[in-house]
Automatic annotation (TrEMBL):
Key words, A-Z: Activator, Nucleus, rRNA processing, Transcription, Transcription regulation
Name assigned to this protein: Nucleolar protein 11
Main subcellular location of this protein, as a coarse class: nucleus
CC terms in the record's Gene Ontology section: nucleolus
Superkingdom of the organism of origin: Eukaryota
Gene giving rise to this polypeptide: NOL11
Boundaries of every Nucleolar protein 11 C-terminal domain copy: 422-722
Compartment(s): Nucleus, Nucleolus
Any Gene Ontology biological process: maturation of SSU-rRNA
Pfam families with a match to the protein in the record: Nol11_C, NOL11_N
Record bears the keyword rRNA processing: yes
Length: 723
């Protein structure tokens, strides 16, 4: 039995996709972690994604005018990434590298077709002429001559395996309508060439293969809407130069008069394959769809229509399908179970109907979809409905029994309930700690609250949301609309808690929080609840409350009469000194900014947003960072006291980011001139100080060595001259 489960969008592919995939997707390869994938676009960019968080972890590009010509792969032994630029230039880098111009580079003597990375055999390089080298051998002499094996043939497909600790590479070529298969065992340096048996009026469109018990099983998707199987033994005793490979029919891609015009396919297990293509019945318009077929019983198990169209490419890793759908890269999870006749014909009863799906993209769920997402993939009906009690308006909503009705149905029943009943039922639902898939349930509860906020602008359960975020281990991907609503409501306390607790906040949201925190007035912040744990130990709150007062003047009105909470007016700050002695912001704003400093980010994706920060806010933020930098430098261990206080590395990284984004503007701003000068002087003094320390480092180490050698009980006076 096979089933398609939940789907979600990994990233956009258009110019606004945000991950550099505007040219379309060239390939998708596994990353260094089972939850990571490497995306290579048809241009000059490679991006590493964390699938479960739908978050990019890194992005690397070659220069304009250069192009990445084959899929970027990960070396699983060294955790390095390998790319081929302009067919012959090899580039190798690690996660910490940013600029590909500064990473390892080697120019090869022949054009590369593809690099295959094996988990326990290292990368294998296949050249367009059919020559094969392991990466280690190739790097010993990058300009070594590469033999041309296939002459006028063109490589159409290749794959690599490990069999008995031995790397095996198989690739298919085409010449004048004939197709050939090559099998190379690298350690034994043995190459076998085969010719595929011809099929009248049809040709192979796609290949895939797997290896088991010294036997390669090659599957070929032909243009006559059929999949054929070819068996190739690894042990070959014959010296015959070219053998003919016979094929057998594995599967006809037709069902009930409809024919699937497949474009690509993958093997799921010994009895199931997935095919991406266009399904059409006679006289009807074809529809692109993803299908799973049972090859044992020749049946179509499940089909999903893809109305926005695909590129025809299909990848499969860790029980997930990856394919383009419209202008996005879509991920669909699937499950396959042992084949049986009952499952193949759809008669197998699903004994376990999960109440909550293991993964739900909460951002796309509507009210009705909440129900669907919590039902099994076989659309098993709910067991029963609970009885309704009509005592009063408060009890007008059905009291559903959690054991018999799904969470989605419960939330749908509560859609129009009074606020008190609505929140009470949700609290009762969350109290069932033993419920399976508890995190997904919490995500759905937050989604229900957010949906009510959207339909009723006056409704905002601030305390309820705070309670959930503070007491549950959540993530941004589980409730992506939560921070958007908090930004809309200017709920700085909730935003602060989310920044502190969510590990996967997108850079766009981090920037939005920073902009709100810098824009909001000190007077307003003094009236709201903010966690001051990160600042209470290094900012004198009582003293600073006197120092950070600002006078806001506009058309004769003072700050006390002004109702607007935003600092869009001319502000005269009287609390700053030239050397940054006092904190340029109040303790509440400092605590909020500290939460931003602690959030995880990728410089590549944050910098474009940071460039949009208004100049006055950028200067204020830099002043605060400079203040923190000076404070850290006062301590011997360069560490600020307190809970969740920023580290010196976080402060320096944000300083560099801010200066990279706004340096030209700051140089031209009169109010930033003194700040930049002070920062320059302070950094220069720090460099000189550490330079002097480096000069006596050797002498101090020698002194430490001498002290260790002497008897600690012997008294002596020594004079050491440091030169």
């Amino acid at each position: 039995m096979a089933a398609l489960c939940e789907s979600f969008t990994l990233c956009g592919l258009g110019p606004s996709g945000g991950v550099g995939l505007g040219g379309g997707l060239l390939a998708l390869e596994p990353g260094p972690d089972p939850d990571h994938v490497l995306l290579t676009d048809r241009g000059r960019t490679a991006t590493l994604f964390k699938v479960s968080d739908q978050k990019p972890l890194g992005c690397w590009s070659v220069k304009h005018g250069q192009i990445i010509t084959c899929p970027v792969v990960c070396n699983f032994e060294t955790h390095e990434y390998i790319a081929v630029q302009d067919d012959k230039v090899l580039r190798i880098w690690k996660n910490k590298d940013i600029n590909l111009d500064k990473v390892f580079k080697a120019t090869l003597s022949a054009d590369v077709y593809r690099i295959h990375s094996l988990s326990n055999g290292g990368p294998v390089v296949l050249f367009k002429g059919g020559g094969i080298r392991t990466l280690d051998v190739l790097l010993e002499a990058p300009q070594q001559e590469i033999e041309n094996i296939i002459s006028d043939e063109v490589i159409k497909w290749s794959e690599a395996f490990t069999e008995g600790q031995q790397p095996v590479l198989i690739f298919a070529t085409e010449k004048d309508g004939d197709f050939f298969v090559y099998v190379q065992k690298l350690k034994m340096d043995s190459l076998h060439k085969y010719k595929l048996e011809q099929q009248e009026l049809s040709k192979p469109l796609s290949f895939t293969a797997y290896i088991k018990n010294q036997m390669i099983t090659l599957l070929c998707l032909y243009s006559n809407d059929a999949v054929y199987k070819v068996l190739i033994p690894l042990q070959q005793n014959t010296e015959e130069e070219e053998q003919i490979l016979s094929k057998s029919l594995l599967l006809n891609l037709s069902v009930s008069g409809s024919v699937l015009k497949g474009t690509s396919f993958v093997v799921l297990d010994k009895d199931h394959i997935a095919v991406l293509g266009s399904l059409a019945a006679s006289g009807e318009e074809s529809k692109e769809c993803l299908t799973i077929w049972n090859t044992k019983f020749q049946t179509l198990q499940i089909s999903k229509e893809l109305p926005l169209g695909t590129s025809g490419q299909l990848w499969c890793y860790e029980e997930k399908f990856f394919f383009t759908h419209g202008k996005v890269l879509t991920v669909i999870m699937y499950k396959c179970e042992t084949s049986s006749l009952a499952a193949a014909v759809g008669k197998l009863k699903d004994s376990q109907t999960p109440d909550v799906s293991s993964f739900v993209n909460w951002n796309t769920l509507g009210d009705e979809e909440l129900v669907v997402s919590f039902q099994s993939q076989q659309s098993v009906a709910l067991k029963s409905e609970s009885k309704m009690t009509l005592r009063s308006k408060r009890n007008a909503v059905a009291k559903v029994q959690p054991d018999t009705v799904s969470v989605g149905q419960l939330l749908l029943n509560l859609k129009d309930a009074p606020t008190t009943v609505f929140e009470d039922e949700l609290r009762q639902l969350m109290s069932k700690a033993q419920m399976p898939d508890f995190q997904a349930t919490i995500g759905c509860v937050i989604t229900a609250l957010i949906n009510r906020c959207k339909t009723n602008p006056k409704y905002y359960p601030r305390s309820f949301l705070l309670q959930i975020v503070q007491t549950r281990d959540l993530s941004y991907s589980l409730c992506p609309d939560l921070m958007a609503v908090a930004l809309e409501k200017k709920d700085v306390h909730l935003l602060q808690i989310c920044l502190q607790r969510f590990p996967d906040i997108p850079e766009e949201i981090t920037y939005a929080c920073l902009k709100v925190f810098l824009s909001i007035s000190e007077a307003y912040l003094q009236r709201v609840d903010v966690n001051l744990e990160s600042v209470i130990c290094y900012i004198d709150i009582e003293f600073n409350n006197k120092e950070v007062k600002t006078e806001i003047v506009e058309n004769g009105f003072n700050a006390e009469r002004e109702q607007d909470i935003w600092d869009t007016k001319v502000t005269k700050e009287t609390h700053l000194t030239a050397d940054g002695e006092f904190c340029p912001v109040g303790p509440q704003k400092a605590a909020l900014l500290n939460a931003v400093l602690h959030s995880a980010y990728s410089e590549t994706f944050l910098l474009p947003h940071l460039k949009n920060l208004p100049a006055q806010q950028a200067v204020l933020f830099l002043r605060y960072l400079y203040y923190l930098y000076v404070k850290c430098s006062e301590k011997i261990n360069t560490t600020l006291p307190g809970i969740r206080s920023p580290t010196i590395n976080q402060i320096m990284d944000w300083m560099c980011l801010l200066l990279d984004a706004h340096f030209t503007v700051m140089v031209m701003l009169p109010e930033a001139k003194q700040l930049l000068s002070n920062l320059h002087k302070f950094v220069r003094a720090q460099v000189r100080f550490y330079s002097e320390l480096n000069k006596i480092e050797g002498s101090l180490r020698e002194l430490q060595r001498l002290n260790h050698q002497k008897d600690p009980h012997t008294y002596s006076i020594e004079v050491l001259e440091l030169i």
